Amino acid sequence: MKFILSDITTFEWNSVHKEAARMFEHFISSGLFRFHSDMVERWQVYLVCEDEKGRLWKEIRPPKYYAERILTLRDQNSKKVRICKELVVDFPLDYEIYAKAHTEEECMKVLAREFTRFIETMPYPMELRDTFDRKAFEQRVRDTLVRHELL
């Protein structure tokens, strides 16, 4: 399974926060590399970490599953992109908690704790509720984070 982490923020991330997010993405990606699911081949996660002002305009979207779909990108070329077996989610991260973390290790531990809590409580789209092995996925993520001493 391919794991991609993108960020949506209204505050200026310092290099420690950015690097922690990239390392977290790398750890989860490597841990899920051999995780096989017939239903989900790609997991797109948008890390939403907003300050008070940002929360007023940014609404957390419910998880969305695409079995197969052609999307038209809103750019100059209007390029069409085919996506298959993709789960897209907004991962809300508490701004106050993450902003207070000052070292890369503290940031990664915050990300690990909050992401684990998020995947355990996330409502999965209807198409995946009976077919996606949620418990095995959650365990793989936990095992990966424990192996890297983040949980």
Write the layout of secondary structure elements.
Layout: E1 2-9, H1 15-32, E2 42-49, H2 52-57, E3 64-72, E4 80-92, H3 95-100, H4 104-121, H5 126-129, H6 134-147
Parallel strand pairs: 1-2, 2-4
Antiparallel strand pairs: 3-4
Helix pairs in contact: 1-4, 1-6, 4-6
Please explain how this structure is put together.
- It contains 6 helices and 4 strands, in the order βαβαββαααα.
- It has a 4-stranded mixed beta sheet, covered by helices on one side.
- The longest helix is centred in the first third of the chain and has 18 residues.
Instruction: Please bin the fraction of helical residues.
Output: 40-55%
Average pLDDT, to the nearest integer?
86
Poorly predicted ranges (pLDDT <50, ≥5 residues)?
none
Structural category is: alpha/beta
Written as H for each helix and E for each strand, in order along the chain, the element string is: EHEHEEHHHH
Rounded to the nearest angstrom, the radius of gyration is 16 Å
Main pleated-sheet profile: 4 strands, mixed
Number of helices: 6
Number of strands: 4
Question: Outline, from the CA principal axes?
Answer: globular
Strand content: 25-35%
Biggest sheet strand order reads 1-2-4-3
Distance between the termini: 22 Å
